[in-house]
């Protein structure tokens, strides 16, 4: 049911998908340095 609703939306679903993807990319881009620093600090005594 949910998938059919998304398909019938058309442009709305595309915009929603694009926004989700951009947010995901931004989170990844900003989280990688944080994860790297966290791992480096946790590994070092």
Structure write-up:
The chain crosses the membrane at residues 6-27. By secondary structure, the protein is mostly helical. It has one domain. Helix content is 91%, strand content 0%. It is built from two helices and no strands. It has helices spanning 2-9, 11-43. The longest helix is centred in the middle third of the chain and has 33 residues, at 11-43. The radius of gyration is 18 Å and the shape is rod-shaped.
What are the key terms here?
transmembrane, membrane, 45 residues, mainly alpha, single chain, 91% helix
Q: Helix/strand-derived class?
A: mainly alpha
Count the beta strands.
Answer: 0
Mean pLDDT: 77
Number of helices: 2
Radius of gyration: 18 Å
Provide a quick synopsis of the model.
This protein is mainly alpha-helical and 45 residues long.
Record the SSE blueprint.
Layout: H1 2-9, H2 11-43
């Amino acid at each position: 049911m949910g998938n059919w609703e998304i398909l019938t939306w058309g442009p709305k679903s595309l915009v929603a998908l694009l926004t989700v993807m951009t947010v995901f990319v931004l989170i990844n881009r900003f989280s990688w340095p944080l994860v790297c620093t966290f791992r480096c600090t946790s590994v070092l005594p």
